[in-house]
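Deliverable D5.2: sample structural annotation.
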Amino acid sequence: MSTPDAELTYEQARQQLAEVVAKLESGGVPLAESMQLWERGEQLAKICQAWLDGAKAKIDAARGQQPG
């Protein structure tokens, strides 16, 4: 059973993205499937980036609250 995208952790999304990349790099995937994998990879990359952006925002906010 797969986890809906909105519930993926960063680690889950990164792992799925690595699997997609490995399949694409294998070269043994038909064109139609390659296009689907590419689109899925784009979605997963956006999920990972959103997690990283959120973490950076939290760090920036914490640094802004530090004295001095």
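Annotation notes: The domain at 9-65 is CATH 1.10.287 (Helix Hairpins). The mean pLDDT is 92.
The annotation will be released with the project's public dataset once the embargo ends.
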